[in-house]
């Protein structure tokens, strides 16, 4: 499998109006990493599924994650995998330690706060129901990620009006160019 971009949907598998789904339709070579149970994700199982998807790539992919999948990327980074990625574009990381998180964290706690061993960017909203702005800033700082705060954007998903999301696509394009000058 040749894959420059792996998309990682969050809890409930980003639906048809979500920006990830729009981007996958626009770029059919991009691959959404499958998961067995989107409603009740298990950290260890999902980390193994991500590792298997990365192993199938010809080169080092860029991970494009939303919500809980941002925590998946942080968990994978500390899993001890010998595989490498080019970078991670992390949008609206869910705070699985917050009371607002809608399901059992299923092993995603504690949140890894070690510096990520690859370039990354965190895109955050000022009114996300699943992560407070100060927590999103703290994750970005701990992970060594560039932080982009886009104002009041809810959870930056289809339900918040982020369908095709051309501004996000432009941010991802710039991130990719910076990785491959």
TrEMBL record:
InterPro entries associated with the record: AB_hydrolase_fold, RBBP9/YdeN
Pfam families: Ser_hydrolase
Keyword NADP appears in the UniProt entry: no
Entry keyword rRNA-binding: no
SUPFAM superfamilies recorded: alpha/beta-Hydrolases
One MF term in the entry's GO annotations: hydrolase activity
Keywords on record: Hydrolase
Protein name: Alpha/beta fold hydrolase
């Amino acid at each position: 499998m040749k894959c420059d971009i792996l998309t990682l949907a969050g809890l409930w598998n980003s639906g048809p109006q979500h920006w990830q789904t729009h981007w996958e339709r626009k770029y059919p070579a991009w691959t959404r990493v499958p998961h067995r149970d989107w409603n009740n994700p298990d950290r260890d199982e999902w980390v193994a599924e991500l590792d298997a998807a990365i192993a199938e790539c010809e080169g080092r992919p860029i991970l494009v994650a939303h919500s809980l999948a941002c925590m998946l990327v942080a968990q994978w980074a500390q899993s001890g995998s010998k595989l490498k990625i080019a970078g991670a574009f992390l949008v609206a990381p869910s705070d699985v330690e917050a009371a607002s998180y809608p399901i059992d964290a299923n092993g995603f706690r504690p949140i890894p706060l070690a510096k990520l061993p690859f370039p990354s960017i965190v895109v955050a909203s000022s009114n996300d129901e699943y992560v407070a702005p100060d927590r999103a800033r703290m994750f970005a700082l701990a992970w060594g990620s560039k932080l982009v705060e886009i104002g009041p954007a809810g959870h930056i998903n289809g339900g918040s009006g982020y369908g095709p999301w051309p501004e996000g696509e432009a941010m991802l394009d710039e991130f990719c160019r910076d990785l491959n000058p």
